[in-house]
Design brief:
single chain; 193 residues; mainly beta; Elongation Factor Tu (Ef-tu), domain 3; 2 domains; 6-stranded antiparallel barrel; 6-stranded antiparallel beta barrel; 12 strands
């Protein structure tokens, strides 16, 4: 389990892709804390570390992951938001994030609003049904509050700290982002059936 509080922006050092999936090697200051078999959220996608060196770790992404997330579109040198799995005695600062991406969205607009930057993310109706104003959303592994939502997408307002410490600070219109909706909304819907 994760909280959506990004601990480092890592760099994709290498991607070895073939028809069976892809192995990503990611350079990060967190490498010393990662052990083989650990779960690491990579831009919101829970991946398992398969090998670790002094300043990087490798993880495999299967075809299912590549087809449902933006991981398949990453290239060498790209930045990725990283979070290690939460420890049982850890501080819970974001919201419950599983690292199970529900789908992708596209950045439709970026605009300044005082100290913040507002990003509009276009998303499919099957995801928007679980997104509510002032509710939680995970965008590329970042726990955020929904500022507004309509039938085409939703807005997130980012403080300077988030822009500085995550990949969203360099985001551009047209970028694809991984989305994980609030798990409680999905459970509530299923129980209401």
């Amino acid at each position: 389990m994760f909280t959506g509080l990004v601990e480092d922006v890592g760099t994709v050092a290498k991607i070895d892709a073939n028809g069976d999936g892809a192995r990503l090697t990611i350079e990060t200051t967190l490498a010393a804390q990662v052990k083989e078999g650990d779960s690491v959220a990579v831009s919101g996608v829970c991946l398992t570390a398969t090998s670790v060196s002094a300043n990087s770790f490798a993880a495999d992404a299967i075809n299912e992951t590549l087809s449902r997330t933006s991981i398949g579109s990453l290239g060498d040198g790209d930045g990725v938001n990283l979070e290690l799995a939460m420890k049982a005695d850890g501080r819970f600062g974001g919201h419950i994030v599983q690292g199970h991406v529900d789908g992708v969205g596209e950045i439709a607009e970026i605009r300044a609003d005082g100290l913040s930057q507002v990003i509009t993310v276009a998303a499919q109706p099957e995801l928007l049904r679980y997104i509510v104003e002032k509710g939680s959303i995970t965008v590329d592994g970042i726990s955020l509050t929904v500022a507004a939502v309509d039938e085409k997408g939703f807005d997130i307002a980012l403080i300077p700290e988030t822009l500085e410490r995550t990949t969203l600070g360099a985001a551009k219109k047209g970028d694809t982002v991984n989305l994980e909706t609030d798990i409680f909304a999905k459970y509530a819907e299923k129980l209401a059936r």
